Amino acid sequence: MAETIGFYTLSVLILGLAVLVVTAKNTVHSILFLVMNFLCVAVLYVVLQAEFLAVIQVLVYAGGIVVLYLIVVMLVNLKGEAEAHQDPRRLSVIGLALAGAVLLELAGILVYSSGSDAAVPSSEAVASPVQGNVEELGWLLYTDYLIPFEVASVLLLVAMIGAILLARREV
Amino acid sequence: MIDTIVIPLLKIAVLVNGVLVAVTFTVLMERKVIAWAQSRLGPMRVGPYGILQAIVDPIKLILKEDITPAKADKWMFTLAPILSLVPALVVFAVVPFGGDELFYVTDINVGLLFIIAVTSIGVYGIILAGWASNSKYPLLASLRASAQLISYEIAVTMTLVSVILTAGTLSMIGIVEAQQEAGFWFFFVQPVAFVLVLIGGLAETNRAPFDMPEAEQELTGGFHTEYSGMRFSMFFLAEYANMLVISAVVVVLFWGGWLRPFPNVAALSFLDFIPSWVWFFGKMFGFLYLFIWIRATLPRYRYDQLMRLGWKILIPIAIGNIVVTAVVKVLL
Amino acid sequence: MMEITTVHYTVLSAALFSIGVIGVLVRRNIIIIFMAIELMLNAVNINLVAHAHRLENLVGEVFVVFVIAVAAAEAAVGLGIILAFFRNKETVNIDEMNVMRW
Question: Which residue windows are transmembrane per the record (chain A) (predicted)?
Answer without folding.
Answer: 6-24, 31-48, 54-78, 90-112, 145-167
